[in-house]
Amino acid sequence: MVMPSSIPTCYHVLQPCTLNTPLFTNIATKINIHNISIRARKITLSLSATYPSPIKQTTTDDLNFEDRATRIRIKALVHRIATLSSSNNKTQMLQILEKDPEFQTVSDFNHLLMALVISQELDICLSIFAKLPSFQLVPDCCTHCIMIRCHCEKNDIDEAKRALDTALEKGFRPDAGTFTVLINSLCKRGRVNKAREAFEAMGRKGYKASVLAQNCLLKGLSYVGKVDEALEMLMGMKGTSLEPDVYSYAAVMDGLCKVGRSGEAMELLDEVVEMGMVPNVVMFNTLIQGYSREGRPMECAAVLELMKEHQCVPDCVSYNTVLHGLLKWNEVLAALGVYRKMVGLGLEVDVRMMGTLVRRLCKRSRWKNSLLQDAYDVFEKMKERGSVVDQRTFEVMVQALCVGMRFDQAFAALNEMVGLGYSPEVITFDKVIVGLCAGGRVDDAVSTLVLLHASGGIPSRISYDVMIKELNKEGRLFCACNLFGAALKLGVVPNREPRLNVIGWEELQVTRVN
């Protein structure tokens, strides 16, 4: 399941400091030159102004991103980097950027580093930073903040922690957003103890704790299975200035559901409603997954109805998760109902689950014949979508059609199956041949036998026996003899042999006498 996380992204973390710096998304959403678009999900960088520090800051005024000139410059840099990326390798890009006389101050390079991180050119960003001394420039606090985030983007948390330590040793005060990004990155990798150390460091440096940073820790604790600690931390937030939000509850609910405590997760959902907060689709999807893991599929379906009560529209993930749970625990009729509802709403059903539904319906159709048509409808829907139907689903469908005496559809599906390059099991051909012979369609049965041989299979004795029997019955001695000889040539010895039709032989003798 993908949760909208409470992780620090450009929407939450990039808090304004002294200069009231806006979010970088303001920049990203305005950067759309020709075919270059910067997607907000990749932008986890904040270049906030620093708090006063012993080191003199000389580039502060240039870091106000509400300034139109700054936005235009960043936009131009991102466009330029994107252009260079399409025509040069990383080494050439670095050489071109190094020789540019435009970058003369730390502020200039901060803008460049920020644009490189936005463009996900992280290796070049690190190379440019390493070469700052050659330009007789000293990194400032904002430079270090960018590099911390750059390392987080590269998933190199140890380097990010070292970059933070370096900044602190130099007397800089990285903004709270930078700390939160680091905390989140540590939590995503299960290093919750290190994340706590960073969180405590925030307090020692005089930063006010934020709900966002707390949410990162809640999610980290839940991720590593320390659910009781996460629950205790959540309860401790209540009644304080850091009142938990829906993301706080969602993080703990996810942890509870993953360890088989979905009932407690439901209690937290009730608490969210009592507190006047609006539960989101992520919370409900978390519950659905939890109930499914615990073998409570009907409660998954009940959560869908609960969502409607809270004016929360189930999404494709909600329905597919419910459908998966119902199929996993063999609640086939309920699964069929959810599938029909999804089709009615125009939602896309996972093709693997459609295949599972077809097979389960085919199995049930032996006792309830009406389900065979439902299975065939889902089967046809898979093909209409252009989905590649797997061999097992084809085989089960063909066999079920034979049991249901729908040999025309079975024969067509079998031909289609071979045409797709599948090699059906011999038993599948046997069932079609037996069924066709039972309906007096021995010629179609022989065609099926030829199809089996063409697909590289060797017909079984059962197929030969039933066809020779039918040919004997129809008095087609020559065809029966040919079929018998073909069987012997393949090493198959049928139990039945061609025989003269007795009545036909007697009539022949009388004709000759006369």
Characterise the protein shown here:
- With 514 residues, this protein is mostly helical.
- The protein has a domain of 165 residues: Alpha Horseshoe (Serine Threonine Protein Phosphatase 5, Tetratricopeptide repeat), CATH 1.25.40.
- Helix content is 64%, strand content 1%.
- The chain is built from 26 helices and two strands.
- It has a two-stranded antiparallel ribbon.
- A hairpin with a 2-residue loop joins β1 and β2.
- α4 runs parallel beside α6 and α23 runs antiparallel to α24.
- The chain starts with 24 loop residues before the first helix and ends with a helix.
- The N terminus and C terminus are likely disordered.
Task: Describe what is shown at a glance.
Keywords: Repeat. With 514 residues, this protein is an all-alpha fold. The chain is 64% helix and 1% strand.
Structural topology:
Blueprint (H helix, E strand, L loop, with lengths): L24 H4 L3 E2 L2 E2 L30 H20 L2 H9 L7 H13 L3 H9 L10 H13 L3 H13 L6 H13 L3 H13 L6 H13 L3 H11 L8 H13 L3 H13 L6 H13 L3 H13 L6 H13 L3 H14 L5 H14 L6 H14 L6 H13 L3 H13 L6 H13 L3 H13 L6 H13 L3 H13 L12 H12 L1
Antiparallel strand pairs: 1-2
Helix pairs in contact: 2-4, 3-5, 4-5, 4-6, 5-6, 6-7, 6-8, 7-8, 8-9, 8-10, 9-10, 10-11, 10-12, 11-12, 12-13, 12-14, 13-14, 14-15, 14-16, 15-16, 16-17, 16-18, 17-18, 18-19, 18-20, 19-20, 20-21, 20-22, 21-22, 22-23, 22-24, 23-24, 24-25
